[in-house]
Amino acid sequence: MAESLLIAVTDTIIQNLVNEVIVRPWGLKKELEELQVILSTIRAVLLDAEEKQEKNPLIRGWLENLKDAAYDAEDLLDDFNTETMRQGLMTRNQVRPFFTCSNQLVHGVKMGDKLRKIRKRLDKIAEDRHRYALRELERSVDSFVEERRWMQAHPLLSENEIFGREEEKKSLIEVLLESNVEEDVAVIPIVGIGGVGKTTLAQLVFNDARVKTHFELRLWVTVTDDFDIQNISRTMLELLRNKRLESFESDSYNVQSNLEKEIDGKKYLLVLDDVWNEVPELWRSLRRPLLGGARGSKIVVTTRKELVASIMGTGPVFRLEGLNREQSFELFKRYAFESQYMKSINPRLETIGMEIVKDCVGNPLAIKSIGGNMRFKTTESEWLDALNNKSAIIAQQETGILPILKLSYDHLPPHLKPCFAYCSLFPKGYVIDKQTLINLWIAQGFILSSTGHQQLEDVGHEYFRDLVERSLFQDLKEHEMGGVQSCMMHDLIHDLACSVAGTEYTMVDRDLRVSVDKRVRHVSFGGTLNSSWKIPEALLKANAIRTFLLPAQSDGELKKSNCNTILSTYKLLRALDLGDSEVKRVPPSIGKLKHLRYLDLSKNYNIRRLPRSISRLCNLHTLKLSSCYELIELPRDIRNMISLLHLIIDGCCRLTRMPKGLGKLTRLRTLSLFVVGKKFSGLRELNELNNLRGELKIVILENASSSESKDIKYLKAKEYLQSLKLEWSGERSETDDDLMLKCLEPHSNLKQLCVDGFMGVESLPWLSSLTNIVELQLVSCIKFKSLPSLDQLPFLEILCLERLTALEFIKGEVSSNFFPSLKELYLRNCDELMGWLENEELTSIAFTEQYLFPSFPPFPHLSKLMIENCPNLKRMPRYPSLDEQLYLCNTPLEPFLQTLEMTMTTAAPSTSFSSSSSYPLSKLKSLNILRIEESLPEECLQKLTSLQSLRICYIPKLINLPTKGFRNSTYLCTLDIWGCGKLKSLAGVLSNLTALEKLTIENCNKLDLSSDDTTWQGLKSLSSLSITDLPKLSSLPKGIQHLTALKKLAIENCRLLDLSTDDRQWQGLESLSSLSIAELPKLTSLPKGLQHLPVLSSLTIENCKQLDLSSDDMQWQGLKSLYFVSLLRLHHEVSLTRVLQHLANLEELNIIECRLQDPSDAGILSKVSQSLQMLRLYGIPGLESVPDWLQQITTLQKLEISYCPDFKTLPEWIKHLNPVIKRCPQFSG
């Protein structure tokens, strides 16, 4: 490993030594030339040293000494470079230079003395090469050039290809799509050794079109060996909500309860990839909120361990073995030979390749990795060398896949080896952002431009592609605008990275249980650092650290003293990550880190200003400040940060202007936010920033002065921008918005555009020139009365028109090319919108025939349509082929009903609609009708034969549901009925819904569910029922005992309902596992019928004023299957001991905003359950410490105490559990 890093370091030094700009000011040209000769001599023998160091520890020591000296030389050269840049800045800014002639001479003498000492060290090291008989070896430069040409000529190999797993894929899909199942949620394990293809098989199935259609939700979570329930649950919830959770949402109870709500009654597919947990209780705790999914939900688990499969699995186990010999070689050929580009393969290389493959034991990961490297070897001698090395390695080391994978690393070009080793700093299962990774590589000097003209970042993208080609990265995620956004490393590849990184790279836990070598240069932390953390002494001694990363940091807190220590100790830092650490004030000493290239301060919500000294970081190329919500200004002297390439400030919502001189940073490639100031920092600062790419958001555009809107197009030359948002704030009486908009015309390459708050009348005169636009959003443009024709934009897929309050018409052209690519259309809060075309066009006879009886569906590819608060929209093109979602809220039903009236003769026979179905909207899966003035016509659901989800809400005139339509709803799985005040009965509706799995009824004042017994008998599949705010409900519905498949029941805010007396209707609920009761004022004790529920495992009770759980122990008896209880905001005191003594299997207990009763009977304490593992106490008044009787519960593993205003201390006997204490103001720790 050392030799590859040294090659990168020496190449960087040599490149800088010939840089006249660095050399000239110091008068040290001769010394630097001598150093260049020595380094070139040493570099020539590094490849030979690489081969010999494995067997010769003296050579290994020689490399270590060389590495130290080379790093010192690089740091010294960086000092030269930094001081040269600073002198240039002072000259440019007309500041008196610190270095007068005499000062510069003195400084040059000091620098020269340091240089001579390093040169002597390196000279001695160079002489020692003869002692070890090191030869000069050099890989041909032409071979690297040839590889680069090959990379550019051939596309990346598809990860979706599969070899030898066709049967497993077919069988697994059949299991996932199986609908005739007894259990709601089945768990299917995939078991096999590392690299055998478990994850690949799961990915192929996960992305299969049939699977996508079958499941309402799909989630993928990489678990690895840390089975942290909180983190896994949080990841799932963030995936469901498609956003990061705020800190107040991150408490474990909130996460689990919200996760349960998100998946409740929905058919989901969850993949838990790479599971190692062998503790059944942890799996049960994670599983609890997942059990509320609709029948047919599936969880796929990939694991290397049979025990994990036996603990988690409920369905068939898929055991993957290695590929057979033929399959192995077919896969190898796909990666090693250019078979799809060459007509023939060298037979001799093919024979050698078969031998190479033989020892890969059919492992696809090893085959792909070795094959990817062999692709670049063209001679027989190179292939034989690889074959011999493979045999030697396997003979020397333990059997297993890692030694085979090591060959892939050995055959990497030297410039890629440090880049690969650097990835060992990320935790297993970590999603690596591609741009961040490249920026970190650049910060460490790993990337060099071979031509001198190519940008380092572009070279970095090539490096990344090289590693992908060699199968060292996987799980590539595409950016929505194209290109790779992120990747992951297979855990075996991560093991390989850690093994080759040696002591120079270390990922440690917060307690430093892993030893740290004093020569370590790159450090990351695998967990969250909080306020109690102190920098370990061993880490303080390693003061040559160049990288300090916190990739796993989440809601942590780094004390000010630690922050100061990091900055004062690690003066050679080139990459520093302090993100999400609650840093409130960045120390001014940050300006002394003159080598710093990469600085991440994102998600530190309380930072208001950055120290002025940060502008002295003239080497800094990446500054990340995302989501620093309180930041009010950027450094005033930011123009001095001349190396800055990436200024990432999205989410800095309190910025009021940009610093003057920002426009001087012409190398900027990323500027995520630009705030237009009133007095300066206007749009002119953007004019020269033509290297910007990715996303740009320009806000407070009303501050732009009229002088800035004259004949200057600030964005037209920015050809690399892909996404642009233009935002004006607030209403204004007089504006120059129309003039300003002309100056904001973007380049035609733009793919995403959002215009928000524009108050001009002229609607986007340059819009038709954006021929590559994919997504267009027009928001709060309140003076637009019409829009230009949008239907001819060839690549437009998403169109959103929101709060266009004056918009009356949308212009369009009647042609066969009408919205050729549009998939999603959103019309929201357009109060005056009446139709798609202007009045005179609508009355045209020629058009009317074309419009009402078109020869093609006007929206040929529309999949999702949402119309909300458009009360006058009665005319619009039809949408018969809509298949995903139709959402209608406060808008006329005419377009919907007219679409339903279409026949096959009015729809184009060339569309997919006509070929696969007989009726319009017959493929629609989800329909939402809300706040409609008219009632629903009887026939409105009859043709929707594929409907799976239906929501009918707040329709005041609705008395009866359209019963005829429900007769054909054989696929309906989810039905929500809310706020229909005149609805009286569900008779004749529910009995036909044999596939219904989730039913929610809420706020229907006249609905009486208690009288009709036959209503419920047909609901054989119903697994989730929620009843809320039904004032007429006085008892459970009579027919509820027929719901034998019901697993989850929630009852809330039914003021006449008393569950304490009658227990007969509970008796048929033999599958009920989860019960939630809230706001039932007549409930005085637990329902007696709960004792008839044999599998009830989860009970939640909230805000029932009369309920007293301590008055009678009998109410808890018989609930032996309960393992989760949550009690919230109960008015009577809660006795924990009385609860625990009867619940023999209780594992998790949450008490939230309740008063606790002290135990009075010592006999009760002796009977307390010995099964409790998790206890959460939130908002408990008067709680000052942990109750002493908890010592008797030896099974307790986790304790959380939050928002307890009186909590002060933790007793010693509980500290071994590392309790989580949050937001308890009197707790001192």
CATH architecture of the domain at 165-319: 3-Layer(aba) Sandwich
What's the Cα radius of gyration? 34 Å
Q: Fraction of residues in helices?
A: 25-40%
Number of helices: 33
The count of strands amounts to 40
Write down the overall mean pLDDT.
Answer: 82
Instruction: Flag low-confidence runs.
Output: 96-102, 140-160, 339-343, 391-399, 839-857, 904-917
Q: Any idea of the CATH topology of the domain at 165-319? A: Rossmann fold
Query: What separation lies between the terminal Cα atoms?
Result: 43 Å
| Gross geometry | globular
Classify the beta-strand content into a percent band.
5-15%
SS class: alpha/beta
- What is the C-level CATH assignment of the domain at 165-319? Alpha Beta
Describe the main β-sheet briefly: 22 strands, parallel
CATH-defined superfamily of the domain at 165-319: P-loop containing nucleotide triphosphate hydrolases
Pfam family, one: Rx_N
Protein name: NB-ARC domain-containing protein
Domain Disease resistance N-terminal: 16-89
GO molecular function: ADP binding; ATP binding
Description of the molecule:
It comes from Cephalotus follicularis (Albany pitcher plant). Helix content is 29%, strand content 15%. It has 1229 residues and is an alpha/beta fold. Among the domains are: 1-145, no CATH class; 165-319, P-loop containing nucleotide triphosphate hydrolases (Rossmann fold), CATH 3.40.50.300; 324-411. The strands form 5 sheets. It has a 22-stranded parallel beta sheet, with no helix packed on it. Helix 19 crosses helix 23 and helix 21 packs across helix 22 (456-469). The model is unreliable at 96-102, 140-160, 339-343, 391-399, 839-857 and 904-917 (pLDDT under 50).
